[in-house]
Amino acid sequence: MKPLLTVFTPTYNRAYILGRCYESLKKQTCKEFIWLIIDDGSTDETKNLVEKWIAAGEVNIRYYYQQNQGMHGAHNTAYELIDTELNVCIDSDDYMPKDAVEKIAEFWRRNGSSEVSGIIALDCYTDGQIIGTHLPKGIKKCKTFDLYYKYGAKGDKKFIYRSDLTKQFPYPIFEGEKYVNLAYKYCMIDLDYEMLLMDEVVCCVEYLNDGSSKNMFRQYINNPKGFAFWRKEAMKMPLGGLGYKYRQAIHYVSSSLILKNKYFLKESPRKLLTILAVLPGIILYKYIIANTGKQLRLRTSSRKVEGNANG
């Protein structure tokens, strides 16, 4: 039987933690999945480690190595390679409860159809606590945007998508940058489809210090083209009210200032809103610059302390 699900994991120099995800996949009560590992240019022992796991034959593993493109570039590659009906991203520092694949497969076979784009399920911390809120009761399906902005859900959730849909809307690659908000693809799919709600945990999450979630200020500075692209797209989408679009305009202004793009107003899809966002955008820009400098100083100080201790 062809596997129903691809669990794909983008990874970059995470050999020290990737084994936890592997161990969780070995224990799955349902084996109807492929583990697709996208190695985004690792220089550690990732390749050797994965080759040993493939040789062991306990998990159906596909491994693909590419030059470093960042998270969104690894997602692009994964979606090109996936050939199962469903897919879900499990990051290299996360893992799945032993019945996660079973829950996904059974739920989809009972409720799935071509009229929905997939399933929204829950993430939890490693201690079992749900991240944010549970999914709204009495609602069987909704758009991902409505989940947060209409029904008030909070915190990261796990999105399991139909693979024919995730092959659409590839993330743009900007030279010299390694980040585009993954929400771009989800919002584009959101325009035409709702997702089924499954109030069950399918992923255990740990936010490590070398992960993108804890380095967001630095992401802003290093990837302003990617951030500006997403903010412009968000302003164009028929999702959310004026307040939502105004927030996007503020972020667009701040990213444009980082880029030193003097044509940002001309390039904006919502010019009046962008004019009104200039002052708060400047304030946000200064806040980002200040916090990025603070993070760099803290890291430098930490390295000095470690060096003195090791010396």
Backbone structural class: alpha/beta
What is the chain-wise order of helices and strands?
A: EHEHEHEHEEHEHHEHHHHHH
The CATH architecture of the largest domain can be named as: Alpha-Beta Complex
- The biggest beta sheet, please? 8 strands, mixed
The number of distinct β-strands equals 8
Strand percentage lies at: 15-25%
What kind of assembly state do the chains in view correspond to? single chain
Can you tell me the CATH class of the largest domain? Answer: Alpha Beta
Q: Choose one word for the global shape.
A: globular
Q: What is the count of structural domains?
A: 2
CATH third-level topology of the largest domain? Spore Coat Polysaccharide Biosynthesis Protein SpsA, Chain A
Give the CATH superfamily of the largest domain. Spore Coat Polysaccharide Biosynthesis Protein SpsA, Chain A
Order of neighbouring strands in the sheet with most strands: 3-2-1-4-7-5-8-6
Number of helices: 13
Output the radius of gyration.
20 Å
- Averaged pLDDT, please? 92
Terminus-to-terminus distance: 58 Å
Poorly predicted parts: 295-311
Helix content: 40-55%
Structural features, described:
This protein has 13 helices and 8 strands. It is of the alpha/beta class and 311 residues long. An 8-stranded mixed β-sheet has the order 3-2-1-4-7-5-8-6, with helices on both faces.
